[in-house]
Amino acid sequence: HGNPYVRRRAAELHKATWPDRPLPLATPGKSERLHSIPLPGIEYDPNERPRVRIETNRGAMTFELFRGEAPVHVHSFLRRVQDRFYDGTTWHRVVPNFVIQGGSPGANEYSGVSQRYWRDEAGPQARHIRGAVGISTRGPDTGDGQIFINLVDSPRLDRAYTVFAYVTSGMEVV
């Protein structure tokens, strides 16, 4: 991967998950994406994008995750899903004709889990259209696991916030 942060983080995750295995020497070419590299501890079909079903008191929605475009965010989000971090959290911020935001156990803009922030993975592929799922931040590289869903197209957010998924079903629930 061309991003040194992603390479370093992937090496850290590999070492933490498989301390006895050497780091694979294969490096993806410029045109390849990371969907062929496994996310440690998470089962998935490398030929498909992972999907997560979110159950709410108003119905269910499905997110299709973009592992190739935002590998660190997808991995971190899936880890939190596996750990049931989001269970019982609310959509604590609702801005009509803009976004809904949730994922804070205290419903207060902070995840309260860690002081380690997620580095932004916002790039030209990060289009904030209706149904885009992004990570809330308080400035560059300060994502902490709270998510938001765009209720309308919001091009002013493009390249400012990481889009790691899209709602593929259940947008009427939002």
Describe what you observe in this structure:
- With 174 residues, this protein is α+β, with helices and mostly antiparallel strands.
- It is 15% helix and 20% strand.
- The protein is built from two helices and seven strands, in the order H-E-E-H-E-E-E-E-E.
- A seven-stranded antiparallel β-sheet has the order 1-2-7-5-6-4-3, with helices on one face.
- The longest helix is centred in the first third of the chain and has 14 residues.
- The chain is globular, with a radius of gyration of 16 Å.
- The N and C termini lie far apart (34 Å).
- About 9% of the residues have low confidence.
Strand order, main sheet: write it out.
1-2-7-5-6-4-3
Structural class: alpha+beta
Which sequence of SSEs, written as H and E, runs from N to C? HEEHEEEEE
Fraction of residues in helix: 10-25%
Count of DSSP H/I helices: 2
Major pleated sheet: 7 strands, antiparallel
Instruction: Tell me, briefly, the overall form.
Output: globular
Computed over alpha carbons, the radius of gyration is: 16 Å
Mean pLDDT: 76
> Strand-residue fraction?
15-25%
Distance between the termini: 34 Å
Number of strands: 7
- Poorly predicted residue ranges: 25-39
